[in-house]
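Below is a complete specimen:
___
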Amino acid sequence: MPTKRKKITRKRVNANSLEDWQVKFLLTGDEPQNEGFRGFSFCWAIPGEPSVRHGKGPTWFETWAEIKNSATVISWLKEHPGQKPFAWWQLEAPGNRKILECPQNYQRKPDEEPLEETQSFVFGVPILDPYEFNPDERLIVESQAAYLDRVGLLTDAEKSRLKDADFEPEILTAKDFE
């Protein structure tokens, strides 16, 4: 016997419907330590791919798609030339930043998968275990501006506002991953 199912509708998301800390999280990746964040769970469901939804909220893709062209995000981009928001890096970036130097424990042999294929990334940088670093080791990656320029996503307007130092590689140590 057929069962009548109730259609679940989700409210559309816009920058005005999100709390300030939610927008900040999408822009910066900073996880606030409050009750709301612990209950805030965007699903990583990719459109067109089967996945399990966790929580009742919208997916990351739905939320980001709704707010990425909002005045809030456009203002953030103007204040941060040569950079992209956290959610862009996690959901839209066409690749990761080049690794120019990495700690000994993370260097790959020619027959191994490259580091870029085996790690999770944040802002296009691999998330490494700080306890596998020697104190004098470092991870050097291309800057966000250099990456965006290399892949053709840095606008002339942004370039005109950047300094040479913005294109210098970023140097990360174990402390940056704690």
Notes: Residues 143 and 162 are 12 Å apart (CA to CA). The first helix runs from residue 20 to 28. The chain has a mean pLDDT of 77.
